[in-house]
Design brief:
Order of helices and strands: HHHHHHHHHHHHHEHHEEEEEEEEEEE
Low-confidence stretches: 176-189, 312-357
Protein name: TLDc domain-containing protein
Subcellular location: Cytoplasmic vesicle membrane; Endomembrane system; Synapse
Number of helices: 15
Pfam families: RabGAP-TBC, TLD
Membrane topology: Peripheral membrane protein
Helix content: 40-55%
Shape: elongated
Keywords: Cytoplasmic vesicle, Membrane, Synapse
């Protein structure tokens, strides 16, 4: 009985971990993981991925990659598994990605010869059975397996994370475009807890529970694993950009909510820390715009709408735009850091010209005098240093209409939410 309880607490700790993701908990995220393996294999284990694709035949490589975690957890010999799990518990799921690529590389090495037993196994019983059998009879020692895994060059944690996020957003976009509903298990509906709902009802001057649930459905899936926390409100903390930065600048992501004196309610999901306003480029110039393509605008009253980044159809060169279906996520989590390119006669910094190639990738900007979200041909949200007056226009980054009819607005309440543990 004691061992069962200990096992349960160990699993619960892995699920609840805030520092690293150990276990995926939704059907969507499970699909994201194997598609991430497939994408990084095409770049970092190219010959192995191509060989696997040729051997897969009619079933296709997708079906094979879908079992990638079982190569490790179910098929590897116990001595290999122990060594892999030691690394996994220390470093997180990126270890599994590296080991999966190492298995593909080693399998390719032993199955590339048409006279080998593994090539014969793949052609006779299918490559999925061949990889499973190869893992169970792993010809490489635990040390060699891990050495192969960690000797893959240029496979950084940041790169894996970018591929993971891009894949997640692409899958969500396709689901909205085609009208498919991504089914989640009961345990992973990831709605705010009842206590969080009570807290928001007590503290918020802008959000009703219905509006909270609407916003929740627009958030990236991984963010819904966390609970919302009110970081800053003008009702309690005063109207000062200095206080705003002190309370919110180290949180990522944040939800910024504005209620105007005309009762309009709108805001933005801000994917990046506001502290990045202080970052400088390699020349020592302050980065004017920062953030990623996960940033989006929304309106809750009088109209309810979401305005995601327009996206880019051919890489991130700004030569084309693509607006994904309403309510969907972005296809490219492109991180933007662009310095001011204009300069006024008195030496003050100028605005980025909307005609520049990056005018549709201007997500967030801030300094001691203002906060801006969205740019190019206008600013989607602009607020002054006293958090009293603001302006909203159409902008190239989100292709949004003005978020309130008059364009200019007076702020009744500003609220900023973070996500506990994110």
């Amino acid at each position: 009985m004691y061992l069962k309880e200990e096992c349960y607490h160990c699993m619960a700790s892995l699920v609840a971990s805030k520092e690293k993701m150990f276990i995926t908990q939704t059907k969507l995220l499970n699909e994201v993981t194997w598609k991430t393996v497939m994408q990084i294999a095409k770049k970092h284990a190219k010959s192995a991925a191509q060989h696997l694709s040729r051997l897969s035949g009619a079933i296709g490589p997708e079906r094979i990659y879908a079992d990638w975690q079982w190569w490790i957890l179910a098929a590897l010999p116990f001595p290999h598994l122990v060594r892999v799990l030691d690394c996994f518990f220390h470093e997180g799921i990126k270890v599994f990605y590296r080991v999966a690529l190492a298995i593909l590389i080693l399998f390719n090495k032993h199955a590339s010869n048409q006279n080998s037993e593994w090539y014969a196994e793949a052609t006779k019983n299918g490559v999925d059975h061949a990889i499973d059998k190869f893992c169970r009879n792993m010809p490489a020692s635990p040390t060699k397996l891990l050495r192969t895994a960690f000797s893959i060059r240029a496979l950084s944690s940041q790169y894996i994370s970018r591929v993971f996020i891009k894949t997640e957003m692409t899958l969500k976009s396709k689901a909205v475009i085609t009208g498919n509903r991504l089914v989640r298990s009961r345990s992973s509906d990831n709605l705010p807890t009842s206590q969080s709902q009570v807290n928001i009802q007590m503290m918020s001057h802008t959000l009703t529970i219905r509006e909270l649930f609407t916003l929740w459905s627009w958030l990236p899936v991984r963010i819904t694993m966390y609970q919302p926390v009110l970081l800053y409100t003008t009702e309690e903390h005063g109207c000062s950009l200095t206080t705003f930065y002190v309370r919110v600048e180290h949180h990522e992501p944040t939800l910024l909510m504005i209620k105007t004196c005309n009762n309009e309610v709108f805001g933005a999901y801000c994917s990046t820390r506001w502290f990045e306003r202080n970052q400088k480029d390699e020349r020592g110039n302050r980065q004017a715009y920062f953030g990623t393509g996960e940033t989006f605008l929304f309106s809750l009253y009088p109209e309810r709408a979401k305005y995601p980044w327009v996206g880019v159809t051919s890489g991130n060169d700004g030569k084309g735009e693509e607006r994904v279906a309403h309510g969907s996520e972005l296809l490219h989590p492109h991180r933007a850091k662009y310095p001011w390119v204009g300069c006024l006669e008195d030496g003050k910094e100028g605005e980025i010209d909307a005609r520049t190639p990056h005018a549709n990738s201007l997500f967030m900007a801030a300094d001691n005098t203002m906060v801006t979200i969205g740019g190019g041909d206008g600013q989607a949200i602009w607020m002054d240093e006293n958090i009293r007056f603001g302006k909203t226009d159409r902008c190239s980054t989100f292709n949004n209409p003005p978020l309130c009819p008059s364009g200019d607005f007076e702020i009744r309440v500003l609220e900023v939410y973070g996500f506990s543990g994110a």
